[in-house]
Amino acid sequence: MNVFWFFPTHGDGRFLGSPEGARTVDHDYLSQIARAAESLGFDGALIPTGRSCEDPWVTASSLIPLTRKLKFLVAVRPGIMSPTVAARMAASFDRHSNGRLLINVVAGGDPVELAGDGCWLSHDERYEAASEFLDVWKGVLSGQVVDLEGKHITVKGAQQLFPPVSQPHPPVYFGGSSPAAHDLAARHVDLYLSWGEPLDEVAKKIADLRQRAAAYGRTLRFGLRVHVIVRDSTEEAWRAADALISKLDDQVITNAQHTLGRADSEGQRRMAALHGGRRDRLEIAPNLWAGVGLVRGGAGTALVGDGPTVAARLREYAELGIDTFVLSGYPHLDEAYRVAELVFPHLPGRAQPARTGGHAAGEVMANQHVPRLAAAS
């Protein structure tokens, strides 16, 4: 079970849709999250993309020297990026980080944002372009000289002179819920990421993707992208979920749903259908809460409960075939510690990492006898 965290480059705080309790997301704050994620034992971290976010490549590159093992899941954007330029960026990042790059293919789902970036392709055309993009991107990183005259992309003599550390190329992650997206995943990607939907819906996706991939002679790995609200008791966790949206008024929710509704993303449509914009139907499955999606695009659900409960829900998804979980929580620095302290002990092979030169006995109280710590070897 691989567990990733998240860099909130679009903002962070204690409440959704409110400046109250908001945090300044600058390089210092992101550095704190990166160091915490690595020291707590997370395997990697996702960096989001879009016009509301800091650039993921610049952000990830700035965090390479602050970490040693943490992997970075960074977006490429077919339709608004050259595949050969993206390949050079990937190879350089992978070399400078010693093989710690993972690629998140994002075709885009908001026509307004895409128009601002100069992309006028329809929904299915974006996936056609993404397929051609990946033919070139994967080909040059694998050492091939690529000629392609496609519907959307044409290159001649494309090549990459500096190979990546990861062979034949950094692993490719991707998420999308439409038939066109599933076909792209079946043909090209290494790991398919689903947003947090009820178990039976995720199981249907996995079955469809396995069948499509088999038709191409391929197999896929699977992951889940979901938020987490974990506390010492399940009752406390539900109170924290209620508090997270306590500053939202109905007009803010209406405005957010109107903006999100312009997307032609099937995944975004499915997220919105889980709650219908209503506060009274947010627990859509045991411990799966859709409140984040009232005002946030993309992943809109959270697992809510105490540590054993959240871990049990994660294991249920793992039984479907999911081996990678990309988690997040508000505020992201605080919640990373909660997940590591309360959830990790209940996941297989996911004990908190041992520290050297310190102790985990809590604060030393007055007159308390503390055994001498062994010197680090």
UniProtKB/TrEMBL annotation:
Record EC number: 1.14.14.5
Molecular function terms from GO: alkanesulfonate monooxygenase activity
Keywords, in A-Z order: Flavoprotein, FMN, Monooxygenase, Oxidoreductase
Residue spans crossing the bilayer: none
Pfam families given in the database record: Bac_luciferase (PF00296)
Domain Luciferase-like stretches: 1-323
Tagged with keyword NAD: no
GO biological process, one term: alkanesulfonate catabolic process
Role according to the record: Catalyzes the desulfonation of aliphatic sulfonates.
Family: Belongs to the SsuD family.
Protein name, per record: Alkanesulfonate monooxygenase
Taxonomic lineage from the root: Bacteria, Pseudomonadati, Pseudomonadota, Betaproteobacteria, Neisseriales
